[in-house]
TrEMBL record:
Domain annotation Peptidase S9 prolyl oligopeptidase catalytic: ranges: 485-700
Peptidase S9A N-terminal domain ranges (all copies): 10-424
Biological-process GO terms, alphabetical: proteolysis
Disordered: region residues: 1-23
Lineage, top ranks: Bacteria, Pseudomonadati, Pseudomonadota, Alphaproteobacteria, Hyphomicrobiales
Protein name per the record: S9 family peptidase
Organism: Rhizobium redzepovicii
Protein family according to the UniProt entry: Belongs to the peptidase S9A family.
Cited SUPFAM superfamilies: alpha/beta-Hydrolases, Peptidase/esterase 'gauge' domain
Pfam families in the record: Peptidase_S9, Peptidase_S9_N
GO terms, molecular function: serine-type endopeptidase activity
Keyword line: Hydrolase, Protease, Serine protease
TM segment ranges: none
């Protein structure tokens, strides 16, 4: 029996066929009209959206509200549970930097963070000695959407750059604040990527600017007090297929310009001794070769996959001659042990690596070469390496958690090897780790590989096939989904759910080859791995097909669309958040913000018929067919520059037209937000509560 009863007639999007011929292949898109012609301008001013498109999105929201009306009490209950697990007046442990220590905090009921500082060795628990530098709630007042981009202070601690986005479009505005008075200067830098890097003298900073297609194509140098129009162009990237960012070093003597796509990188360096100089190239981009730099005094440490080092190695080169001809190996490539990131300090080199699916922190004494590891014994866990804000230090900071263990923050002395527990995540409503089980199991894939799956469930959950399951997946860009503590999913576990994360190909969970085997012409491995995880959970009676609700967002939303087409009978429901489902049309539109930089991940169907056909074979929108789809909830954001709102809108329209089943297909468009959804911490919980309410409803557990 359907859990959705007495629904109104769903919206039926008009069909306005548009044909497109590429490589001699003609496709017809009935719903192309949902893509606003003025999307670039609309991201900055949503009020100019075409009225017909707005009416359709609002009709979809009304239908979705009718279908989910009976879950409103459940949504409120879930929200209250999730909120009760958050320490509302929480505060970070401040990070020492010079004469001060900097941190963030929240006030009870507050949605946005506050940035504060105290004297370097001040009592971190004494709120009366804190100086609030930036109050996010105050800045967000009266705005439907507001997201901060952080606060970066000058070397002398007198001023700070802070950024905000109040549309959800990810065009950030930068301002300069006098940290002594709390007042902003007249400087206002528009259309940036969200951050800036101060020059050592604190009189100017560097930032990346976004072009009209939302690509960070230029780096500028801004002198405080002058208008943005006078900013000097430092570097312009001519290739629309590359992202670009700007950063600084702990020693304040170099500005990094990082240019990269998903498989190739290039760095240009600007010495802060001459801010008017042209940035110098380190190593010219070579397709498939990645590298990144961190400074170690008179040398750079370079993390790279050059010369066949698929899982990366660490090299060194002199600061005054960092070119590839000077690179010398420091940490050798070890197949199967992926080096994720690296940092350098006065006496130590450290890196975060992953082996057998689990992370560990490695530390090397730069003088002696002696190495040791920071590792943990749980079956599945997550590590975060934050390092330090100062170069001349022996103490770094890292975090640890597991699906059952709340996050723990440590200071670690790299000389004495002592760990100091600074903070354990509080769960005000209570949490007993002994009530839950976390496991790492391995699902056999069709080609003989095994797919890691992390599980969380209550000890008293029956493992006889009757438990509902929320199965989460992503599988793209080499991103690894950590097996960390998540207070929200406890609301599902406490209702008898098995919460599962499928660590599928396309991520780097099992090394770089795990990523390579889930991209381009091997992309379908990602989808097959997810179905294999569902098969395994069904066979081992952790759950059953009739009780699995699949969830994924963005590229994970593409995964949702693909498995809905491949195996709709194996899922009781599907939640697709900001889903990248119109893959072929998007990769054919080189005006969209992310299209050229994404070609190395998915393929370039404009230039290559082979890659066109590869994408066409799995693109969820193009492969919707006459079959019985399960209940589907799609979520979009009107001003989303990453996965544009029309992707889920078109997908839902086509699904509803094609499905042979009676299950509802729902679309929820946030008319005030973009890719990340609501910006406030409690507003975000409301969205999660909504998604979980859908899962619980579909599972028949209301």
């Amino acid at each position: 029996m359907s859990v959705f009863n007495s629904l109104p007639t769903p919206p039926a999007a008009p069909k306005k066929p548009v044909s497109d011929t590429r490589h001699g292949i003609t496709r017809t898109d009935n719903y192309a009209w949902l893509r606003a012609d003025n999307w670039q301008a609309m991201f900055k001013d949503p009020s100019i959206l075409d009225p017909e498109i707005r009416r359709h999105l609002e009709a979809e929201n009304a239908y979705m509200n009718a279908a989910m009306e009976d879950t409103k009490p459940l949504q409120k209950l879930l929200f209250s549970e999730m909120r009760a697990r958050i320490k509302e007046d929480d505060s970070s442990v401040p990070v020492k930097d010079g004469a001060y220590a900097y941190g963030t905090s929240y006030v009870t009921g507050g949605e946005q963070p506050r940035y504060f500082r105290i004297a370097r060795d001040g009592d971190v628990t004494d709120e009366t000695i804190r100086t609030v530098l930036l109050d996010g709630d105050k800045e967000a007042s009266g705005k439907a959407y507001f997201r901060l981009a952080g606060l970066d202070h000058t070397t002398d601690h007198s001023h700070g750059i802070w950024g905000y986005d109040d549309k959800g479009s990810e065009f950030y505005t930068l301002k300069v604040r006098d940290l002594a008075t709390g007042e902003d200067l007249a400087d206002r830098i528009e259309n940036t990527g969200g951050g800036g890097v101060w020059a050592p003298d604190g009189k100017s900073f560097f930032y990346s600017a976004l072009d009209e297609n939302h690509r960070p194509s230029k780096v500028f140098h801004h002198i405080v007090g002058r208008p943005q129009s006078e900013d000097r162009l430092v570097y312009e990237e001519a290739d629309a297929g590359f992202f670009m960012g700007v950063g600084g070093s702990l020693l304040d003597d170099v500005i990094y310009i990082d240019i990269h796509d998903h498989e190739t990188s290039e760095y240009r360096l600007l010495s802060t001794k001459d801010l008017t100089a042209e940035p110098k190239l380190v190593a010219a981009r070579e397709e498939g070769i990645e590298y990144s730099l961190t400074e170690g005094g008179d040398i750079f440490y370079i993390l790279t996959n050059d010369d066949g080092a698929k899982d990366f190695k660490i090299m060194e080169a002199p600061v005054d001659n960092p070119g590839k001809e000077s690179w010398r190996e420091v940490v050798a490539h070890k197949p199967g042990t992926l080096i994720i990131s690296h940092m350098a300090y006065a006496r130590h080199l450290l890196w975060l690596e992953r082996k057998d699916g689990l992370p560990q922190i490695m530390i090397r004494d730069r003088a002696t070469g002696e190495e040791h590891a920071i590792a943990f014994a749980e079956e599945a866990y997550s590590l975060g390496l934050s390092g330090a804000a100062e170069y001349d230090t022996d103490v770094i900071r890292f975090s640890y958690s597991s699906m059952t263990t709340p996050s723990q923050l440590y200071d670690y002395n790299m000389v004495t090897r002592e760990r100091t527990l600074l903070k354990t995540q509080e769960v005000p409503s209570g949490h007993n780790p002994d009530d839950y089980v976390t496991r790492r199991v391995f699902a056999p894939a069709r080609d003989g590989e095994t797919v890691p799956v992390t599980l969380l469930y209550r000890k008293d959950t029956p493992l006889d096939g009757t438990a509902p399951c929320l199965l989460y997946g992503y599988g793209a860009y080499g991103i690894t989904i950590p097996a960390g503590f998540n207070t929200n999913c406890l609301s599902l576990a406490d209702r008898g759910f098995v919460y599962a994360i499928a660590h599928i190909r396309g991520g780097k969970d099992k090394g770089f080859s795990w990523y390579e085997d889930g991209k381009m012409d091997k992309k379908t491995n990602t989808f097959k791995d997810f179905v294999a995880a569902a098969d395994y959970l069904n066979q081992q009676k952790f759950t059953s097909y009739a009780r699995i609700i699949a969830e994924g967002g963005s590229a994970g939303g593409m995964l949702m669309g693909a498995v809905a087409n491949m195996a709709p009978e194996k899922f009781a429901g599907i939640i697709a958040a900001v889903p990248f489902v119109d893959v072929l049309n998007t990769m054919l539109d080189d005006t969209l913000p992310l299209t050229p930089p994404e070609w190395p991940e998915w393929g370039n169907p404009i230039d290559s018929q082979e890659e066109y056909e590869q994408i066409a074979a799995y693109s969820p929108y193009d492969n919707v067919g006459a079959k019985a789809y399960p209940p589907i909830l799609a979520l979009g954001g009107l001003t989303d520059p990453r996965v544009t709102y029309w992707e889920p809108a078109k997908w839902v329209a086509k699904l509803r037209d094609q499905t042979t089943g009676a299950a509802p297909i729902l679309l929820k468009t946030n008319m005030d937000a973009g890719h990340g959804g609501a910006s406030g911490r409690f507003q975000r919980l409301e969205e999660i509560a909504f998604e979980y309410a859908f899962a619980i409803k579909v599972a028949g557990k209301m």
